[in-house]
Amino acid sequence: MASNTFTSIFTAVTVLSASAFLYFDYKRRNDFEFRKSLAKRERKFHESKAAVKQEEVKGLLRKYANLINMELTFNPLPANPEDSEALFGQLSQKGEQLCSQGPEKYEEAALCFYKSLLIFPTPLKLLEILQSVVPPPVFEILTLMIAAAPPANLYGSASAAAQGAASAAELTADQPLIEEDVEA
User: Fold this and answer.
1) What is the spatial distance between Cα 12 and Cα 35, in angstroms, rounded to a whole number?
2) 64 with 148: CB under 8 angstroms?
3) Within this chain, do residues 42 and 100 fall inside the same structural domain, yes or no?
4) C-alpha span between 102 and 105 (Å, rounded)
């Protein structure tokens, strides 16, 4: 008796599922309004998915801008070229060590590489080197940090890099290094 009941229920569910599928397929093929509503639903789904992704990226950019502001406020870059060279070596080494410690340290590693970009006279060349050396997730975080707070010397010459380092050293703790774009 139990076997007979199970078979009956299974058959009913299968027939209902198949008929629902056939009805949906028929409507999809023959009803223009139905196709139009399906396309509209799909478009809304993709738009909402893109909006969520965009909000996620905006949140990350705000987070990284705040992180960079705090780091450069509490640990300003040296104005002296000799100190800058020494700090560059330390930051590069620390970044590589943090990369080797795993994904939980990738953000700290990217911050070290970001600070080394601020010091390095030709940051575009360093960025090319970093792209081939560091793990892709670290480089992605680094590019988000650059998007959140583009270094002053990124597209300029070596003299612009010196000016950027000097102006960063001149800022006080109550002056924000990066102005956030707050939307209402």
Assistant:
1) 28
2) yes
3) no
4) 6
Structure confidence at residue 80 (pLDDT): 86
Q: Look at residue 27 and tell me whether its pLDDT is greater than 70.
A: yes
- The reported pLDDT for the residue numbered 177 is 44
Does residue 40 or residue 162 have the better pLDDT? 40
Taking the C-alpha atoms of 149, 151, 155 and 158 in order, what is their torsion angle to the nearest 10 degrees?
170
- Domain of residue 15 covers 2-47
Question: 40 and 100: one domain?
Answer: no
Name the DSSP class of 78: P
Neighbours of 1 (CB within 10 A): 5
Contacts of 119 (CB under 8 A, 6+ apart): 77, 84, 87, 88, 91, 161, 165
The pLDDT of residue 160 is above 60: no
The number of residues making up the chain comes to 184
Side-chain half-sphere CA neighbours of 69 within 13 A: 15
pLDDT score recorded for residue 141: 92
> How many independent structural domains does the chain possess?
2
Cα-based distances in Å from 103 to 30, 54, 136: 51, 23, 11
Residues 31 and 111 both lie in one domain: no
Asked whether residue 175 is domain-assigned, the answer is no
The reply to whether 177 falls in a domain is: no
Contact 91, 118 (CB under 8 A): no
90 within a domain of the structure (yes/no): yes
Whether 20 is covered by a domain: the verdict is yes
